[in-house]
Amino acid sequence: MSHFVATLPEPQRAALAAAYDREVAARQRQTLLCVVVFLLALGVAVVGAEVSPITFWTKFGHFTSYFDRLLTLETGGRVWTDPVDWFWGLRRWLRLLGQTLLIAYAGTLSGFAIAFCGCFLASRNLSRFAVMRLIVRRVLELLRTVPDLVFAMLFVVAFGLGPLPGVLALTLHSAGTLGKLFTEVVESISMNPVEGIAATGGGWLARVRFGALPQVMSNFASYTLLRLEINVRGAAVIGFVGAGGIGEDLLIAIRKFYYQDVSAMLVLIVVCVMLLDMISERLRHRLLALGGSQ
Q1: 229 and 172 co-located in one domain
Q2: Taking each helix axis from N to C terminus, what angle separates 259-293 and 53-70, rounded to the nearest 10 degrees?
Q3: Is the N or C terminus of the chain more exposed, i.e. has fewer CB atoms within 10 Å?
Q4: Which domain holds residue 34?
Q5: pLDDT tens across 125-165, in order?
Q6: What are phi and psi of 133, to 5 degrees?
C-alpha cells in the first residue's frame, strides 16, 4: 500500500518559511531587548547602591580565606581531623540551640494566633466594614515592614537581655507576614458554603467557623510551618542583639576571632535547619494533599 505526502506549491511554501523566519527574528530581538534592559537596570542599581565590582574582585580573596580559616583548628589542623576539639562546647551549644528553637516555636505560635484572628477581619469577602479592614491591614503591614531584628533591639531595651525580646520580635513580624498570607487564602475561598450558612440565619462567627475555616486550615498550617523554618534562622540572628539563643555565643565567637567555634555553631545551626526543613516539608505536603482532597 503506497502513501502520498501532499506538498505545498513552491511560492506558498516560501511565503510560510519567510513568515516563520520573521517570527523567529522578532522573538530573538525581543529576547535581546529584555536582556539589554535587565543589564541596564542592573547597572543602574549597582551605581545607585555604590557597589564597586573592582572592590569585589580585589577583595574576594579575603572572603575565601575567611572560610578556609573557619575550617582550621587552633592547632593548625583541619576541623574534621579532631571532632572532639572542634565541638568542645557541644553541650552548651546544644542547650542554646534548643533555646533558639523554643524562641522560634513560641514566636511562630503567637504570631499565628494574631494572624488567625486578623485575617478574617481584613478579608474583603468576609469583613463588611471597610474601616475595620483598613485598620487591620495597615497594622499587619506595619508589623511585617519592621524587621524582626529591629523589633528585637527595641524589646531588649524595654525588657532587658534574654529570650523574651526574641519571642516578642518574632511574634510581631510573624503576625504581619502570616496575616497577609492568611488574608489572601481567605479571599480565594468558595463563597457558596458561607452564603449557604448565611441563608439559614447563621451569624458572622458561624460563617467563618463552618463556611470558611474548613477550606483554609490546611493552607494556614502549611504557611505556619514554613514560617517556623524562617523563624529558626531569625531566632539565631536576633541573638546578636541579646535576644537569647545561640546567636549571642555566635556573635562573641565572631568578634573574638574564635574561628573553629564559629564553624562548629554554624554546622549545628545548618543541620538543625535542614532537619526541620525535611520534617516540615513532609508535613506541608500532607496537609496540602489533605486540603485538596476535601
Answers
A1: yes
A2: 100
A3: N
A4: 10-51
A5: 888 888 988 999 999 999 999 998 999 999 999 988 889 99
A6: -60, -45
